[in-house]
Amino acid sequence: MEYLPDMEILKDSTIIKDLLAHVNAYDYGQYATDDVRAALGRDNCAAEDFAALLSPAAMPLIEEIALRAKKETRKHFGNSIYMFTPLYLANYCENGCVYCGFNRCQKIRRARLNAEEIEREMQAIASTGLEEILLLTGESPKLSSVQYIGEACAIARRYFKMVGLEVYPMNTPDYAYLRACGADYITVFQETYNSRAYETLHPEGRKRVFPYRLNAQERALRGGMRGVGFGALLGLDDFRKDAFATGLHAWSLQRRYPQAEISFSCPRLRPIVNGGKTDFPALQEAELLQVILAYRLFMPYANITISTRERAGFRDNVTGIAATKISAGVSTGIGGHQERQEDIGDGQFEIADSRSVDEVYSALKEHGLQPVMNDYVYV
Amino acid sequence: MSCNDSLTIGGREFSSRFILGSGKYRLDLIRAAIEYAGAQIITLAVRRANTNTEDNILDQIPEGITLLPNTSGARNAEEAVRIARLARALGCGDFVKIEVIRDSKYLFPDNAETIKATDILAKEGFIVMPYMYPDLNAARDLANAGAASIMPLGAPIGSNKGLRTKDFIQILIDEIDLPIIVDAGIGRPSQACEAMEMGVAAIMANTAIATARDIPAMASAFKKAIEAGRIAYLAGLGRVLDKGASASSPLTGFLSN
Questions:
Q1: B120–chain A nearest CA distance, Å
Q2: Which has fewest Cβ within 10 Å: A241, A263, B96, B227?
Q3: CB of A201 closer than 8 Å to CB of A97
Q4: Each residue of A6-36: pLDDT tens digit?
Q5: Global model pTM greater than 0.80
Q6: H or E segment at A187?
Q7: Which chain A residues have a beta carbon less than 8 Å from that of B47?
Q8: Among all residues of B, which ones are annotated catalytic?
Q9: Do B158 and A75 touch (CB under 8 A)?
């Protein structure tokens, strides 16, 4: 699908061209154990090493890879694990992603918090001790406008020291505006980097424009955001290729914008509200771990967030090895952080770890890790 | 060896030459690390101390220790200056370690912006200790801007690779009349000792201790290595022969009186 008239085109950017050329040429079947061992022997992983670490040949060496990943994580982050929680502001959506609980055709309760409700939710979240918040909306620029998101950022800045956004892609001036309102970083999930599959999975809405979404992080950095997050929804398409593309995407932007703080999210497809089932093969835990470890070795300085889509036991162990960021006290519905209040809009997906902030905090400590609520000063 | 071999920075005297970083620890282990390291100066990321939680790093630092707040997170001089002022407002004192970093991969310091921040903060009465890439011109500019010490990196932060910039640090020791403190990359006590033998005034380390299996033991090992290196430096290192023994018939033996 062509760019829509209001969508900014980065004419001077070569990210997409370079990235897709590499990804299309990636044949993970060609790697052998020796390639994986060579990757493990290097101080700094190159793209070729990353490719080997994501290949099936790496799976028998997963214990060795995990040991190395743990060493790298400790070197760069010590025992620190950052905690945050998402706040879903609205679930209106104009897109038709076939796998998503917020999809415009899904018969779910739709809602959008107003300023007063946002503030009350944030007060409730802040009272748990959290100092970082991630604000999310469904993808509807009409019903969750840039101004609306900006207002939420400004309120969040009063209660939190770090404000992240996971909202629809927008133009550079919009990102600059949200940065000025108090946002620190944005995360955009590309879902899949296979452009043909992408078009099938996103049959309608603005999201259908694959390159506009892919360049979102670059526009955000040009707009002054401190950090950018990347993620493919693993299991939508060939997860090895998508993970390879995600890493390379982040890597190539970090080379061009060396100040950028990079983070990875590693969602895999989960059941959605309304019992929706997908036809895609489920990713095994071991495969998800392989991806997380490969990200860690390829970009050892990047934050890796572990989703509540995963069970508590998996999350607690992965944080000791490679992940550095964990959410807690999560509700994916609209509202619902306040006591004695049911959420007013349905959630995007089912979560597998519903532990409170205190519970996650204690679990991290039991694993010898140091929960960190904030590592940033907004000046 | 002189009885009074203290380290003077910004008019303050310290008997310890081991500056300990406080990041990357489990908070309950910091106190032990400080004790076993015998450290009198502890660095502290202002951004990390900027929390309302019970687990505030500031509460783990014993009284009598000099806080050295750092400006990590700053990407230019302006941000570093604002973070330094915030540190002072938080009651962290007048010491400040300038870190200006706009490279998320290697965390390399930006010398030009660091010089600008040093100039502003020294004029405001801060005791400025800038983290820098060991470049002689930049070190001279920092000294002229009012720095109280110079803190060149030995290798990238957290890399534990040791003194990769050894020759350039030696030039700073020889040419700059301020304490030279190796700030990053020291991964082993032996590397700390080697730097001290060269004439470095102090060692700053964090990752090497924070990620050791036995944190108090590693803190203690560093303390001893730093002291040994200092004593060796003051004692004057003996002659080290390049290749084997001296020739029994010297090349210049033909010279008459």
A1: 16
A2: B227
A3: yes
A4: 999 999 999 999 899 999 999 999 999 999 9
A5: yes
A6: strand A185-191
A7: 374-377
A8: 97
A9: yes
